[in-house]
Amino acid sequence: MVMIKLTLIEGDALKVLPTLPSESVDLIIADPPFFVLKQDPNLESAEWDYFKDLNEFLEFTKKWLRECYRVLKNNSQMYVFWSQKWQKEFWNLDQPFEIKRMLIWDNPCKTKGFTSKMYLWNYTPIFFLSKGDIVKFNASFTKKENVDVFRFPAPQPNFKKDKQFHPCQKPYELIKILIKNSSNEGDTVLDPFLGSGTTMKACLELKRNCIGIEINPKYVEITKKRLNWGSSLGNVIFEFKKF
Asked: Rounded to 5, what percent of the chain is helix, strand, coil?
């Protein structure tokens, strides 16, 4: 029986990441703020995406990327969800990873946009970054897991299988593919912007350890509910920290 440890940390990623040991995680899945929502810090739904300007946003991005590089083991990888709007900025960002690919999440839910006067933002880039060589790649050719475009609907409030708990939640099956492709059972996966806990839920199913950092107490509680936090699972150790 593979023992799994799930560590949920309520706190600011920029403060929590420096406390993690260097070269201690095997894979990172990051879905950071995009700096694309309405920039009103008084809106609960958008306050976590608020930055004074683009420069502040990019400095924030460089800081957490450098910390992620430090905590990631050599010859390991990281996936970063990003926005179409700032693609050029990511390609040119001063950060330590090697960009191996830009994958695409094609979101058919966005095809019903509000305008017929301009092309819609219909996909989300996922940057596949590497610290050294790629030594783990478990993608299935027959299941088309080694392609660079993945088509999944975004979670919705009325979905039963992949219900939406967070306005920017990513598809559960997509997260599962990324974790399976770039890690093995028993590895440790880090998500510095956990949101409503999708990465941690996928790690539990795939028998990976997980460290999830989330600043918003509301989504920390949602994560706990989604994972039946503290339930008596013989092979799972639950750990909660408030930073």
From this structure: 30, 25, 45
- What pTM was computed for the model? 0.93
DSSP letter, residue 171:
P
Using one digit for the tens of pLDDT, what is the confidence trace for 150-181? 999 888 888 888 888 888 889 999 999 999 99
- 3-state DSSP assignment of residue 122: coil
| 209 strand-pairing partners | 188
Distance CA 83, CA 61 (A): 13
Give me the DSSP letters along 12-69: -HHHHGGGSPTT-EEEEEE----S-S---TT-TTTGGG--SSHHHHHHHHHHHHHHHH
Do 242 and 224 contact (CB within 8 A), yes or no? no
Q: Report whether 241 contacts 220 (CB < 8 A).
A: no
